[in-house]
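To the structural biology subgroup,

Please find below the input and predicted structure for Alpha/beta hydrolase-fold protein, which we are adding to the shared reference set this quarter. The sequence is reproduced verbatim from the submission form. If anyone notices a discrepancy with their own records, reply to this email rather than editing the shared folder directly, so we keep one authoritative version.
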Amino acid sequence: MKIKAKSIIVGIFVAMLAQQSFAQQPAVIEDFKPSPLNQPQQEYPMVNSQGYARFKIIAPAADSVRVSLGLGGKGGTKLEKASDGSWMGTTEGPMDEGFHYYNIKIDGGKFNDPGALNYYGSVRWESGIEIPAHDQDFYALKNVAHGHVQQVLFPSPSNNTSLRAFVYTPPGYEKGKDKYPVLYLQHGWGEDETAWMNQGHANLIMDNLIAEGKIKPFIIVNTYGMTNEVKFGRMKDFKIEPFQTVLVNELIPYVDAHFRTIAKQTHRAMAGLSMGGMETKTITLNNPEVFSHYALLSGGTYAPTDIKDKSKVKLIFLSCGSKERPEGVIKAVEALKEASFNAVSYVSDKTGHEFQTWRRSLHELAPLLFK
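Predicted structure (tokenized):
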């Protein structure tokens, strides 16, 4: 009898906990609207004011449909089939603010959502969805003077071909004669040179900061970092030398020759997100005579002992999302400051290894460059 009574008490306690947990789950508000990144005239995917995402796929002959969200397509939302042959489902909880990659798994096959625009990530063109952020104004398209983003093809003797880069020039560049500092800004694994302008809105971030008088205008250059030559999880096999040759010996001389740059180490910066941060750290340490401003965005840290000549480094900026490991970034900057480096840390609130973290990081970094 004692065992039975104890079991009943435990059962009641578990039920109460379950009921309390269920009560704490917020009801989904039915104010869904098409995602800002949908194809023209497409209603789905949709997002609501809480950050939930809802998907609808037309696949009448399918046996199963699932949405895989995030870099690499991990996790997912199972869709349910309706009588009209469509499949619909809503994420179990709200998503982080900002941009997310995703794809559709139909009977095990991987496809893009025909309702959404595509972005290069996870070493393929993925569907994209945007969860409107409370601070999205800093990368919004506004009625301000805009810079230009142009594609250039630069010769790469080391590859026996020409390679592509995208160059952002500030508003007024075409009509002026001023020379500008340059930030070489790198993407992460699975992405390419289109990422920072498309997913990251780097050009709009710059335009808005310049319009507000918060930064000294500078040029941004994005090129492919050869990061996808290794598989995810095998980053230790990545060799920096081929890309270092492209960047330092081929791209930088091309940019300095074809754009009005201040072709000096003191006016040249390098930054990168994730694996692009790893590239940034290695290349800046290998080439202290080329870059003076360093920034790693969810891409590791510097230690004071990494840097041989402190006088050549004007700024070290380290950032990550609060859902990553911010303690490492904060402690690294504290150590750099103690060693008399001009070092700054930034932690993006309530975001992880994702573009909202890196958009915010660029927004914080830009005013610190070339001061």
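Summary notes: The first helix runs from residue 2 to 24. Residues 33-131 form a domain with the Immunoglobulin-like fold (CATH 2.60.40.10).

Regards,
Lab coordination
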